[in-house]
Structures are given as C-alpha cells and as structure tokens.
Write a structure and sequence with these properties.
The radius of gyration is 24 Å and the shape is elongated. The chain has one domain: Outer membrane protein transport protein (OMPP1/FadL/TodX) (Porin), CATH 2.40.160. The protein starts with a helix and ends with a strand. 46% of the residues are buried. It is mainly β and 424 residues long. Strands 1-4-5-7-8-9-10-13-14-17-18-19-20-22 form a 14-stranded antiparallel β-barrel.
C-alpha cells in the first residue's frame, strides 16, 4: 500500500470514528418527557384531567398548588401508583416499520399533610415523580437501531411545603424540592463499511438539583376560586459512564481494544412551570375546573457531552447537539360529581402542544400534539378514601424529514392509576 493510500485509509477510519461519536451524542441524553405535567401525581386530580390548580383540596396539592393545603383538616396521607404503558410505531420513507417493545412503568406518589392543630396553617411533604418514569425500547435489528434501541429516564422529587391562610379568601403556599434524575440509553453503531458487525454504545448517568414552588388560591365568592402556581426549573448536573462495545477491528488500535469506557458529564435544565386555574362549584356536589399551563421547554436548547478521557485520534471528543425544544401551553378541563355522599364520578380532557420541532425529532423522543381523555371515580368511607382513574393519551401522527431519521411516528399511552387516602 502506498503512503497516500495509507493516509487516505487512516482518514477514513477517523471520519468513521467521528461519525460514531456525533451520532451517539445525538440521542443518548435526551430526556423522554412524555409525562411532563402528566397524569401521574394522584388519581383524583387525574380523573379530573389534572385541572386542579384552583381546587387543590387533597394532599396532592403539594405538587399542583401548595396553597390548597390549608383546606385540609387534621393529618392526611395520600399515596398510590400509576401504571404507564407507552407504544410507538415507526415507518421509514422506504416502507420499513418497527414497533416499540411492550413495557410498563410505575411512577409512585406519596403525600402527607397536617394542620398542626392550628386554624390557618398547614405543612406537607410530597415524594413523587415530576417528569415520570418511562422510556422506549426498540429492536436491536430494526430501522431505528442506529439512533436508539433503549431509553429510560426516572425522576423523583422530595418536596416539603408550608401553607398559610392569610384571610378567609386568600391562601398561599411555598415549598422547596430536591430533584433526582437517572438516565440509561443504548444504541447500535453501523460498522458495515469497516467490514464489521454492529457495535453498541450505552450511557448510564444520574444527578440531582434543587428548586422551589409556590402558589396562591383566591376565593372571591363561595362558588368560585382562582389559583396560580409556579414550579421553578432545576439545573441537574449528571455524571456517569459511556461505553462502546464490539468496536470494529479497524478501529481497535485507536480505542485500545474492542471495548472503550470513560466517564461522561452533562447538564439537564428542567423547565419552569407556570399554572393558572379557576374552579366553579355550581352546587355542593359538582366541581368544575379549568387550567392553563405554560412549560418553558426552550431550556433544552442544546445538549453538551463532556468526556473525561477523549481519544482525539479517533474523533472521540466533547460533543454538542442541537435540540431546539420550544415552550408550550396546555389546556386542562375537568369535573367531579358526587353521586352520593360516598361515591364520585370524574372526567377530564387535556390538550398538550408538542415540545420537539420536526428538525430534531427522533425515536428517542417522537413527540407530537397530545389529546388526553380521562375518567375516574372515588369512594370514601369514614376516614378512608379510594380513588381510581384511566387516561387515554392520543398523539397526532407525525411525519418528519430530517437528518436524524426521516419517517412517520404514531404514539399512544395508557395510564391506570390508584390512590388511597386516610385522615387522622
């Protein structure tokens, strides 16, 4: 082989290494936020379409609007879990198709509140999953495998709160929260041009951060209440490992073998959330709610990956990926009707705009406009209450033509939830 041919071959190997790393950075840290503001924080509120900011009269007020805790007397415990089942169908421009594998995720919630034997104050503690626990798992031999084969994110909050009823018609609440976020992701690496089978890359990372929330409920008339709630964004610094497996023989000299592993660091800027709501109670048995929610997803403008051990000769260097997510508004409407003193029926609807533009949409987060329809019921006896709901998440079909992976996506999500409450 002549010297120019050797140089050309080395250049080709380096270009392939660069391609591997750039494609890797494109998918492996994008958070799957399909449960943002989702129906996972309490069965009663979810049965009403989560239109709960101006109602907030059970312990889940800690997450919806902490000012509502002043409406609760005694000590209350409210706990439960939601089963989340997601499915996505992908079809390539050439007709190839793939479905995500069946998975069920179980984000939990636990709330405790007490009026401390006072007339106008309350404290609370919430443990819940603000952005859900979920993800998608694709076939390792399917058309999406070079972008994503598996992705999971889990988030947990610990949120102590304090509420004060300033006047009979005005209550305020404030809290601080600790947020923990954990991510895992895998994808395959196309090495066919190097005469090798697919490689595999994977990332595991976690991190935490602090934020705060506050709210206010104003009741100008007995039948009408207005609510406002704010939840701050959180900067989460994540650290973990990135590992490459089955590296092509032609690249092994550059990476020091068939496997390579190093630490990786990144930052996730979870968004601010602003909610406005009103509640109307035309009768003692009927409550209607309407909420407008703004979420600042433009905080996810780009994703930066910082590798502890770079391999410049193989193109393995720090990388940045454009996300260009956008701020969105959601509209929530719902109601509750007590058929008897012990049994209630609920229903609701939520419209959620898409946060991901077409030019950055991928199998990691194939988001689209959502329409959520929920039904629920509640039963109470003495100090006990049992709430249940079902929510169907319909996503508008999405077709994109972008440099990541062009094609069509169809999504659907089932939510089943149960909460049990007890008042001391």
């Amino acid at each position: 082989m002549t010297r120019p041919e050797k140089q050309k071959n080395l250049l080709s190997l380096k270009e392939w290494a660069i391609t591997i790393i750039l494609a890797l950075s494109l998918s492996l840290f994008l958070p799957n936020i399909s449960f943002s503001g989702g129906p996972i924080h309490g069965a009663r509120a979810t049965g009403m379409g989560t239109a709960f900011v101006a109602i907030a009269d059970d312990p889940s007020a800690i997450t919806h609007n902490p000012a509502g805790l002043t409406q609760l007397k005694g000590t209350n415990i409210y706990s439960g879990v939601t089963a989340v089942i997601t499915s996505t169908d992908y079809e390539s421009p050439t007709g190839g198709s793939e479905d995500t594998e069946f998975q069920v995720f179980f984000p939990p919630h636990l709330y405790i509140s007490s009026d401390l034997n006072t007339q106008n104050m309350a404290v609370g503690l919430g443990v819940y999953s603000p952005f859900g626990i979920g993800g998608r798992k694709w076939n390792e031999n399917g058309p999406t495998r070079y972008i994503s084969t598996e992705y999971t994110i889990a988030t947990f909050n610990i949120n102590p709160t304090f509420a004060w009823q300033i006047t009979p018609g005005i209550s305020v609440g404030f809290g601080v929260f600790y947020l923990y976020a954990f991510n895992t992701a895998e994808r395959m690496i196309d090495q066919s041009s190097l005469g090798a089978r697919d490689g595999k890359s994977s990332i595991d990372a976690d991190g935490d951060g602090w934020g705060y929330n506050f709210g206010i409920i104003v009741t100008p008339f007995q039948k009408l209440s207005l609510g406002f709630a704010f939840r701050s964004g959180v900067k989460v610094d994540q650290s973990g490992d990135i590992e490459l497996k089955n590296i092509a023989p032609a690249l092994q000299a550059i990476f020091g073998g068939s496997q390579f592993k190093t630490n990786v660091h990144t930052t996730l800027d979870f968004p601010d959330v602003v909610s406005l709501g009103l509640a109307y109670r035309p009768t003692e048995k009927l409550t209607l709610g309407l909420d407008f929610e703004w979420v600042g997803w433009s905080s996810f403008d780009e994703q930066n990956l910082d590798f502890e051990n770079e391999v410049p000769g193989g193109g393995f260097s720090d990388a940045s990926t454009l996300l260009d997510w956008k701020d969105i508004w959601s509209i929530k409407a719902g109601g509750e009707y007590w058929m008897t003193d012990s049994f209630a029926l609920r229903a609701g609807y939520v419209y959620v705009d898409t946060i991901v533009p077409g030019h950055t949409l991928s199998p990691v987060h194939p988001d689209s406009v959502q329409h959520n329809f929920s039904i629920g019921c509640g039963y109470k006896i003495k100090q006990w209450i049992l709430d249940a709901f079902y929510n169907a998440g319909f996503y508008e079909d999405r077709k994109v033509n972008n440099p990541i992976l062009s094609g069509s996506y169809e999504n659907f999500t089932h939510y089943f939830g149960l909460s049990i409450g007890y008042r001391f």
